[in-house]
Amino acid sequence: MKNRIRMLLRGVGIEVHRYNAAQSLSARTGVQLAHHEVDCVVDVGANDGGYGRFIRSTGFTGSIVSFEPQMGAYQKLLHASHSDREWHVPARMALGDAAAELEINVAGNSVSSSLLKMLPRHLESAPLSQYVGKEKVAVNRLDALEIPEIKLARRIFLKVDTQGYELPVLMGAEGILDKVVGVQLEMSVLPLYDGQALYRSLLDWLEKTGFAMWGVEPGFSDSKTGQMLQFDGLFFKKNA
Questions:
Q1: What is the 3-state secondary structure (H, E, C) of 200-234?
Q2: Name one GO molecular function term (predicted).
């Protein structure tokens, strides 16, 4: 009977799993954050707040600090966080390895917006991601910001989803890496943005700075071929 119900649900696009660390992303994330005693989640590239809502669904009750550079998404992020006293949204900005003012390319689907030029391979796989405009935005180093929740945190989990700009974000966080115990990072298998670091370079950087891979979560795939183009790598400090 259970298998028949699962098959019926799959027929309408729904897949059901048990809520445990082996089968549920939410349960697994909650266990990992609790195991590493994380007290602050820093969400870089927060878009409309979807990741913040997901983190709360895991049972995490500590501080969330969300950064988003794109104006439309930023307004939605403010709305998503306004009733959560422990969810903090600084001024609209991007994060990188140096202070600057740059232009962000705004994608039609919002989530693919990037400081980098999108390559044809990305657009072929996701036509709705085509850039539709540009916005000027301030760029800052994470370790140069005076944000109380980050300054007071003891054990930070850093999530970075910046569409090809992940390595500059990591380099701009070097000054606080001593208290970053975990990193979740969007990693590209193929070049999707001009000048981005691919997964091998990101993996090498994280290993050199003391992190070990704990898991991989599927990300952006080509809907026509099924080829995975991006995945999320999950890392924790080797001595944490």
A1: HHHHHHHHHCCEEEEEEEECCECCCCCCECEEEEE
A2: methyltransferase activity
Give this prediction's pTM: 0.90
Q: Which fold has domain 19-237?
A: Rossmann fold (3.40.50)
Burial of 48 (0-12, 13-18, 19+ CB in 10 A): buried
Q: Which candidate, 130, 44, 133, 52, places its Cα nearest to that of 94?
A: 44
pLDDT confidence of 239, banded at 50, 70, 90?
A: confident
Please report where in the chains the tokens 């930023």 appear, as a residue: 74
In 3-state terms the chain splits into helix, strand, coil percentages (rounded to 5) of 35, 30, 40
CB 114 within 8 A of CB 135: no
The per-residue pLDDT for range 14-42, each reduced to its tens digit, is: 444 455 555 577 788 999 999 999 999 99
